[in-house]
Amino acid sequence: MPPKAKTFLWRSCRNALPTRIQLKDRGVNCTKTCALCENEDEDGMHLFFYCKKSRQCWQQLGLWSQIQQKAQLNLSFGVTMFEILQVLDPSERVTLACVMWYIWKQRNEFIWRNEVMTSVAVRDRCLNLLTSWKNVQESRNRAGVHQHRIDNTVWRKPDEGHFKCNVDFVFNWVGIEICIRNDHGRLVKAITSWSAPVLDVSEGEALSLLYAIRWAKEQNFNKVIFELDSKRVVDSFHSTRNDVFDLGAIIRECRNTFSSFFTNSRVEFIRRQANEVAHRLARAVIFYASIHYFTVLRDCIQDIY
Length: 305
Ligand SMILES: [Zn+2]
Description:
Blueprint: H1 3-13, H2 20-25, H3 44-50, H4 52-60, H5 64-71, H6 77-87, H7 90-113, H8 119-143, E1 163-170, E2 175-181, E3 187-194, H9 201-218, E4 224-228, H10 231-238, H11 246-261, E5 266-269, H12 276-283, E6 292-294, H13 299-302
Parallel strand pairs: 1-4, 4-5
Antiparallel strand pairs: 1-2, 2-3, 3-6
The protein binds zinc ion (ZN).
């Protein structure tokens, strides 16, 4: 399925979507009523299954009867999702994820732009997404892109005189890890820290990048290549657009600090496999005090190092 729909499905099952009930629970001073129908509290169950607006979307795509049957069992959102997934065939599961993605989009378009997206529009956009996704997959297979793919799955030493700073964030642990290595590939300094809980993975990744930039600046490192495996954050960093959401504010701060201090430096995306050192340390963060500095290798990364 399209990666954005798959990630969205995962986030919704982890209760990581900033629905109004979720925001309220986290101390945000906002209304808790559903933005689409203004009738009930907006949690995952309501927004995706009980709300009359989303019901119309499911009916348009012919999935309502299977969903209704499971939604009325009154189970938690995550359990309901798994119950529904089990009664759907593979292509219906893909449709399910895409419809949910557009229901969320429908809600956001209304909140942020005051634009009403009808259930027919949700259906059409969902079908368009599925068709274009399938077309891209087919043409990729035909072109045999696998032969030409640039290998950014392997960590590489920075150019001479440069430092490489790998950054990672682990959502479940709210852990941040920053690891600086020199042009021989040797560990210079690393730091693990706990972060304040965030509502969104990208927001956590952006915060980690900000901490990394500030930390490298404090330590007077220059000529630094910052690497992280969040494509969304790296793309936003390089984009000229200014996002109004929280992520945008963090990215702006990253850009400001970066451009006011660093020369011959850059921020780049790498695949998760190439960021394994940072990733493993970020998962080990719970074993250390909140801010933990080290300059010698830890057991957990010895083998991949
Ligand atoms: Zn509603």
